[in-house]
Amino acid sequence: MLLRDLAELSTEETAAQLGLTPGAMKVRLHRARLRLRELLSSYLEGAADGD
């Protein structure tokens, strides 16, 4: 996720850096984004309760 979203590498560049196929890299990226969304939603829900 860092390579794609922060370093702004292409799918092909990211897959090559990780030694994965582009398809496998896309699956991992999707899972990482879902996990981050889960973690952030818990954090943001807690922050909203404090407002």
What does this structure look like?
- There is one protein chain.
- The chain is an all-alpha fold and 51 residues long.
- The protein has a single domain (2-49), classed as Winged helix-like DNA-binding domain superfamily/Winged helix DNA-binding domain (Arc Repressor Mutant, subunit A, Orthogonal Bundle), CATH 1.10.10.
- The chain has three helices and no strands.
- The protein has helices at 2-6, 11-18, 22-49.
- The longest helix is centred in the C-terminal third of the chain and has 28 residues, at 22-49.
- The radius of gyration is 14 Å and the shape is elongated.
Could you outline the blueprint of secondary structure elements for this entry?
Elements: H1 2-6, H2 11-18, H3 22-49
Helix pairs in contact: 2-3
Can you tag this structure with a few keywords?
single chain, 51 residues, mainly alpha, Arc Repressor Mutant, subunit A, 80% helix, 0% strand, elongated
Give the total of domains. Answer: 1
* Helix share, percent: over 70%
Q: In CATH's first tier, which class applies? A: Mainly Alpha
Q: Can you count the beta strands?
A: 0
Biggest sheet, in brief? none
Assign the CATH topology.
Arc Repressor Mutant, subunit A
Q: So, the CATH homologous superfamily?
A: Winged helix-like DNA-binding domain superfamily/Winged helix DNA-binding domain
Count of helices? 3
Mean pLDDT: 92
CATH architecture verdict: Orthogonal Bundle
User: What proportion of the residues form beta strands (DSSP E)?
Assistant: under 5%
Poorly predicted parts: none
Structural class, from helix and strand content? mainly alpha
Q: What is the distance, rounded to the nearest whole angstrom, between the alpha carbons of the first and last residues?
A: 31 Å
N-to-C series of helices and strands? HHH
Radius of gyration: 14 Å
Q: Which outline best applies?
A: elongated
